[in-house]
Amino acid sequence: MSVLGKARVTGAPFFRRRRETPLLVLRGGLLLLTLTIASPTTAKVRISSLSDVNFGAISNLTIDAIQAQSICVYSNGSNNGYSIRADGSGSGGAFTLSNGVTTMAYTVRWHNQAGQSNGTVLTTSALLSAQTTTAQNQTCSSGAPTTASLIVTLPATSLSSAGAGNYSGTLTLIVAEE
Predict the structure, then answer these.
(1) E strands within the chain?
(2) Which parts of the chain sit beneath pLDDT 70?
(3) How many separate domains does the chain show?
(4) Going by C-beta distance under 8 Å and a sequence separation of 6 or more, which residues neighbour residue 99?
(5) Is 70 helix (H, G, I), strand (E, B) or coil?
(6) 53 within 8 A of 77, measured Cβ to Cβ
(7) Domain span holding position 138
(8) What are the residues facing 12 on neighbouring strands?
(9) What pTM did the predictor assign?
(10) CATH number, domain with residue 165
């Protein structure tokens, strides 16, 4: 069983279903993704504890803009194991944002511990396996409140070549038990 999350980067918050949680949007320097979690009541894997990530106004285009978020990942697989995969909305699943005229590349990193600002680079459609979680239940309501880190980077090379505007895109995360 896998949990499919879709993160949509838009110029304004986008809420389509009750389980959609804002995660990150680029609006003149602000980035917001929303993640939809489709899981049954007795999920074998689940992502929760997602919240807004706000880059604020990005004025220094010569350094990477990085936002990290600690989230809850639950798995009742063998040894609490899971794998994660990410796809963007760019050509071939590339991690890109677009303002309708130009595109801006971003990177996604993952760490299987909370509170991290760096992690393993997720490559489009590539499975990152052998991840484990310490979550005791689906919402991390007992034990550690978060168990993993999602790190999104707008590289300086992308920022310095991007024109002003509202950029949007979609990030899809797929978590599966192992």
Answers:
(1) 2-9, 20-22, 26-27, 34-38, 45-48, 65-75, 81-88, 96-98, 103-105, 107-111, 120-121, 128-132, 148-154, 166-167, 169-177
(2) 1-43, 51-56
(3) 1
(4) 162, 163, 165, 166, 167, 168
(5) strand
(6) no
(7) 2-177
(8) none
(9) 0.75
(10) 2.60.40
